[in-house]
Design brief:
This protein is of the alpha/beta class. About 30% of the residues lie in helices and about 15% in strands. It has eight helices and eight strands, in the order E-H-E-H-H-E-H-H-E-E-H-H-E-E-E-H. A six-stranded mixed β-sheet has the order 2-1-3-4-8-7, sandwiched between helices. Strands 5-6 form a two-stranded parallel ribbon. It is globular and about 45 Å long.
């Protein structure tokens, strides 16, 4: 059975407090997309508003741009995916086995309050699917509640871009909130690598989270392993 992955990307192109550009951190998408493609997964992109997903300029420069990002930038078909993303209303959650939230500082502005993304996340999770995020992608999970009213993150062992990494990245005064602290306020059990910017990914049930851009490959591999361990719907007990 072909597994189906829904990638979430941002529509935001600038910090709201300054004129500094931001957007999708491309390697967080390209690394995972490449890994999922090698496993034959069907993949689609969705954003809070649909349409264009801008790219974070810093993610396109050395040392952040690698072979994976360069291949994406040189491929018109893949670049078109970022021009014509679906809106949440265009997506039927039953068509997907996993939802994967990419990052970049842009997502801090449009992920948390998107009711459409919350609906997709809740539905995919409650139908037995995998919810995953990398770096700032966990901002898309902060305000998601399950059908019983509980926070999705409550009591869950997670990671994501740390406040220390925000400070080291030089943008702590520009971001709208401390994502690490917000996750803790929702009852998450937050953890991070022993040094900033080292790869780290955690699995808690069907929730997979990666800490930073360097964690995208590790996060995607854990999603693949988890999907492989889950029984196909027809094999699950009634």
């Amino acid at each position: 059975m072909t597994r189906r992955i829904l990638h979430v990307v941002s529509n935001v192109d600038r910090y709201r407090t300054t004129a500094q550009p931001t957007g999708l951190w491309l390697s967080e998408l390209s690394h995972a997309y490449d890994i999922f493609a090698r496993h034959g997964y069907a993949q689609r992109l969705v954003s809070p508003l649909g349409g264009v997903s801008p790219l974070e300029p810093r993610s396109l420069r050395w040392p952040h741009a690698d072979a994976s990002t360069r291949r994406w930038l040189a491929d018109p078909e893949r670049m078109a995916l970022l021009t014509h993303t679906a809106a949440p209303a265009d997506i039927h959650p039953g068509d997907f086995d996993a939802i994967y939230f990419t990052g970049g500082h842009a997502v801090m502005f449009d992920y948390p309050d998107s009711e459409g993304l919350q609906h997709l996340t809740r539905a995919i999770y409650e139908q037995g699917g995998v919810v995953a995020s990398v770096c700032h992608g966990y901002c898309g999970l902060l305000n998601t509640r399950l059908s019983n009213g509980d926070w999705l993150l409550a009591g869950r062992h997670i990671t994501g871009f740390s406040w220390h990494e925000e400070v080291l990245a030089g943008v702590a005064r520009q971001v709208p909130y401390n994502a690490e602290a917000e996750a803790l306020h929702r009852g998450a059990r937050y953890d991070k690598a022993w040094l900033p910017f080292l790869p780290k990914a955690l699995v808690d049930g069907r929730l997979v989270t990666g800490q930073n851009p360097q964690s995208a490959k590790l996060t995607a591999h854990k999603v693949v392993k988890l999907l492989g361990a889950l029984a196909a719907p027809e094999q699950q007990p009634a």
